[in-house]
Amino acid sequence: MGKGVFDGDLVAKVVEGLGITDLAKATIGEAKLIALKLEELTGIPFVRMDQGVPGLDPCEIGMAAEKEALDRGVAAIYPPAEGVQELKDAASQFIKAFMDVEVSPAACLPVCGSVAGSFGAFILCSQLDPKKDTILFIDPGFPIQKSQLTILGVKHEQFDIYAFRGEALRDKLESYMSKGNIAAIIYSNPNNPAWICLEESELKIIGEAATRHEAIVIEDLAYFSMDFRKPLGKPFKAPFQATVARYTDNYILMISGSKMFSYAGQRVAITAVSDKLFGRSYPALARRYGGTGHVGNTYTNAIMYMITSGVAHSVQYGLAAMMKASVEGRLDFVALTSEYARRTERMKRIFLDNGFYVVYDRDVEQPTGDGFFFTVGYPGMNSGELMKRLIHYGISSITLNTTGSVQDGIRACCSRMNDEKSFEILEQRLKQFRDDME
């Protein structure tokens, strides 16, 4: 192997200095730190594919609404735990317009990003029934969510969906659900990191299993309507965002503004709880928190308020304005975010031209689409080895094994590829990588 862009001894020194003992298990934050440190020491820029930060400008509609709210003095007032009514109404309408699902404004709760939403959802779901103490991950998935369970001391199970698409998902899911200990099922759709998209038939299998076994489905929609193979994003017109909410009443939807509106810095999302679940009462909740054990009350006031004390006041008005503009057809967020598909299509072509392959390359009936993330492998290399070698060539990523995948490869993100020079550098470095491998 050739030297690459960065000297091997320097890379080893930086990794050791950061206290990283196994690159194959490096977190997103650690991969980011390696890239930043090497850039600082050498002045040579990295191709940053590690952290999934938005690569588009923030939505001006949201910023204008926030400024207006601040001018009205909301910064001096604590936000209501359940959220401002304007946002709750807008979220309910947004879900109807783009998912064709009915969730009342009362059951739409603002949270400080989907990370806070999943943290609260894990607490709630793991406390509904003493016999159900385990969260099931349909992987690959977002590593932070398993870290949250470590903090909470909640058990989890997981399986890689790679070999269990379509009807094969039914028996695989039942093998876990039949144990009687699964409190909730969680997945992202479109998927982080693989960008696979669960199809309606698969969501029906998940929904029916959740109903049959009295489990809750936590559906992470961080990349809402970003299956760019379909003409999504037209308010009140099919096709709609795929969702398990059509097949069960046991669901919590997480809808984030971070990627959809490029609003990641403001940490705001919606957790939409099905009306039937929101209105239910559980004896276990009553014993723990007092009162009637009402789900909506408990989730809002006994759990989420204890985590964040509410979402920043002005931000709620910003998200409300963006959702309202989308519903009214004044903001085409799908047209804006489709830029990610263009970037990924070009990045994939560069990787494929240089001997790589796409790991998660198919959904049930069609090739995986292009979007925010994608996965690549290189023949004969495991995940850790590939990530380590790419670092020497100034390309940062995370390994698939950190996401619950059992496949070899890395996750790549397109968001920082925002100019022609970025693609030229990527192509040059991958050509050098391939030449050195031969």
Helix content: 40-55%
- Averaging pLDDT over every residue, what do you get? 96
Q: Which sequence of SSEs, written as H and E, runs from N to C?
A: HHEHHEHEHEHEHEEHEHHHHHHEEHEEEH
Terminal CA distance: 8 Å
- Look at the helices and sheets and give the structural class: alpha/beta
> What is the count of β-strands?
13
How do the strands of the widest beta sheet line up side by side?
2-8-7-6-5-3-4
Q: How many helical elements?
A: 17
Unreliable stretches (pLDDT < 50, length at least 5) are none
β-strand amount? 5-15%
Q: What general outline do the C-alpha atoms trace?
A: globular
Q: Give me the Rg, rounded.
A: 22 Å
The main sheet comes to:
7 strands, mixed
Description:
The protein is α/β, with parallel strands linked by helices. Helix content is 44%, strand content 13%. It has 17 helices and 13 strands. The strands form three sheets. The chain has a seven-stranded mixed sheet, with helices on both faces. The chain has a four-stranded antiparallel sheet with strand order 9-10-13-12, with helices on one face. Helix 3 packs across helix 13. The longest helix is centred in the C-terminal third of the chain and has 18 residues, at 420-437. The protein starts with 7 loop residues before the first helix and ends with a helix. The mean pLDDT is 96.
Features:
17 helices; alpha/beta; 4-stranded antiparallel β-sheet
Question: In a nutshell, what does this entry contain?
Answer:
The chain is of the alpha/beta class. The chain is built from 17 helices and 13 strands. The protein has helices spanning 8-17, 28-42, 60-71, 85-99, 113-126, 143-152, 168-177, 200-212, 257-260, 275-278, 283-289, 295-308, 313-327, 333-337, 339-353, 383-392, 420-437, and strands at residues 47-48, 108-111, 134-139, 155-160, 182-188, 216-220, 251-256, 269-273, 357-358, 373-377, 395-396, 398-399, 410-413.
